[in-house]
Amino acid sequence: MWRIRIGDISVANLQPLMQSVTCVDIMNFDVHNERQRAEEVQQADLVISLLPAAFHIVVAQECLKQNKSLITASYVTPAFKALHQEAKEKNLTILMESGLDPGIDHMSAMAVIQHIKNAGGNITSFKSFTGGLVAPESDTNPWQYKFTWNPRNVVLAGQGTAKYINNGAYKYIPYHQLFKRTDEFFVEGYGHFEGYANRDSLSYREPYGLANIPTMLRGTLRRPGYCAAWDVFVQLGLTDDSYTLEDAENMTHRSFIEAFLPSATMEGQSLMERLAAYAGIPADGTIMEKITWLGLFEEKPIEMTGATPAQVLEKILKDKWTLSPGDKDMIVMQHLFEYEQDGKKRVISSTLVTLGDDEIHTAMAKTVGLPVGILAKLLLQGRINRRGVVIPIYPELYEPVLDELKQYGIDFVETDRVLQE
Amino acid sequence: MWRIRIGDISVANLQPLMQSVTCVDIMNFDVHNERQRAEEVQQADLVISLLPAAFHIVVAQECLKQNKSLITASYVTPAFKALHQEAKEKNLTILMESGLDPGIDHMSAMAVIQHIKNAGGNITSFKSFTGGLVAPESDTNPWQYKFTWNPRNVVLAGQGTAKYINNGAYKYIPYHQLFKRTDEFFVEGYGHFEGYANRDSLSYREPYGLANIPTMLRGTLRRPGYCAAWDVFVQLGLTDDSYTLEDAENMTHRSFIEAFLPSATMEGQSLMERLAAYAGIPADGTIMEKITWLGLFEEKPIEMTGATPAQVLEKILKDKWTLSPGDKDMIVMQHLFEYEQDGKKRVISSTLVTLGDDEIHTAMAKTVGLPVGILAKLLLQGRINRRGVVIPIYPELYEPVLDELKQYGIDFVETDRVLQE
Hints:
Strand content of chain A: 15-25%
Structural class of chain A: alpha/beta
Order of helices and strands of chain A: EHEHEHEHHEHEHEEHEEEHHHHHEEHEHE
Low-confidence stretches of chain A: none
Radius of gyration of chain A: 23 Å
Mean pLDDT of chain A: 96
CATH topology of the largest domain in chain A: Dihydrodipicolinate Reductase, domain 2
Largest sheet of chain A: 7 strands, mixed
Helix content of chain A: 25-40%
Oligomer: homodimer
Shape of chain A: globular
CATH class of the largest domain in chain A: Alpha Beta
Number of domains of chain A: 3
């Protein structure tokens, strides 16, 4: 029988959800409590860390000390790369990037890449985009977006420079251009989406076995129009998390916007008109409709002290973008492969759409949690032989996971067509 | 008799300049050489550090250890603030911000502020802008700009967020808007200038005794049109110093620009036309003239490896913006004060223009070096009694310096007029 111990900084929220589950113990757990950390790792056969990403490393160090394997859904950082050799020598597996994105994206892409290569195809372009959105029946606001993941990460998304390669040429998109340079996507039955580039589309060329691919781009999906409206916030500087506003405690939504606009030079212009002129958008279009809907032109106090612009924006968005009871979220992932086979140019699209059940049992929770759970089972059953710091790009990992995910309705729809003869 | 020892990492460039000067010894000096650092500080009565700003702190620590006073032309950093108490207790003066900007700007502003306050005036607005430019007779390129200071600092100028206060409202300008939001300035006899805001216009309100001033803005001067053209580089991302280009060794000027543009979608469009469309500028206007003049559309190899975009841009600019033999540079500083006195609104403008003699004896060298030298003399003569970490905002410091600077032709022209009765 499986026994699972779930630790959280406070289990109060967890208790009602776990009442009907018999194989689970829950406990208050503080990762910074050295003794508790050591005790909990000691009594585990396998450790799964779903902590905020910055805290994984102390868990990993404890696991190595006590010879336990570890699974996370987070990116392999340089600090984790440095643990690879030690983990390998101790015959342990630190399995990372095992959730949705990163996770299912790697697994499903590798399955298609392997399939094309086995058939003698040569991949010339790979684009992969994922979004955590809302299901059509819960799509009730002009942004067509609600938070289904850490709101702070949504506000800060894309900061830095996006790097990708297109027709053999490296391309760089600075943050302040990112939300202007979107690609279009279409999913049968679900309509149109737009995508902006992720920071790093280059570093997966090697692990995917696509070192010399001329075009590779990974990104994030939103509904059409989201990016143009979000770009207004970027242009203003509202997503900056690097400094503290001088007087957040006295600010309202209106004065927050005003602080990022040049002073008024004409009499009688409204704040909305001045914002429109500054951002170069129509004062009465769909972008302004989205901004207005968030309440940004209201005289509503911010009620924060010592806050960064990004923290103020996050608070304003949380009031509006939180899932309501019964709301269903939606995960959309689409891979587009162009390849040459037998002298023909072909295109494979591989698309996943997963809907949540309600605001608790979200598609985000399922698609992040299930692959982690399945991989944990495989590891404990001795069916994974990779050791060291590993991501799920090997058939022994992704084949059984993708198979089992189908039982939960997490399944890709694939089309393969000739682009040009 | 004054004796001066000048240390530099290599004195080869210094030797020809110093041949005719009798009171100066020169020596190869490495600030990272602990023993040499200790020995040189030990034999000095006063230490002047004109090293790159990051290295001042190790010099300061050595000075404190050996009970020597220190002068620099650089900003007081938090690390220096932390030395204030110790320096004060040891009866030492660490005199910072003693060059041009920061330096002469503080001194000349404080003289006017003191004058207005003494006459019972109430200052409502203070704007202060400084630029290191080229003299009209050496103004030979479409940017009306040449390097007279560290080129790297010019490329990275303004990164971060500019903060100021206008009519009592705090204002924030993100970097990607900075060169669009310029103010206009005029100097009798020298024509028009434009200015962009410095990062921090707020922290000098207290030291200047203007804690409650409704409007305060400090900034940098350029000739009109410079900022709009520089903004194209910012929009592209060419000034980014945070990451290394993948293939700088294979890049030409053209492919450097191409890397920051979206891929071509129309046939037959030139690189220049695509850049114009992306940046939203005319393909045949004065902005494009400036960019073309720099050679950015040439198939000229970059010849760098592992370079950041900012490093590549700096190399391209150095080829074009270096002073030629005989070139004269020009320092322009303008303070604009609005104040109320006897029920009238008045405006004082206080303006400095200083020209260089040639490409060696620059106005930049004079305006940075002379105040440092005069302050060193005053300190050694026992005429400065302030101890601890000090900036020249006190009459005992700025009055004699401003007086003596006049002998070198560094003198402000002041006008005072009624704005509104």
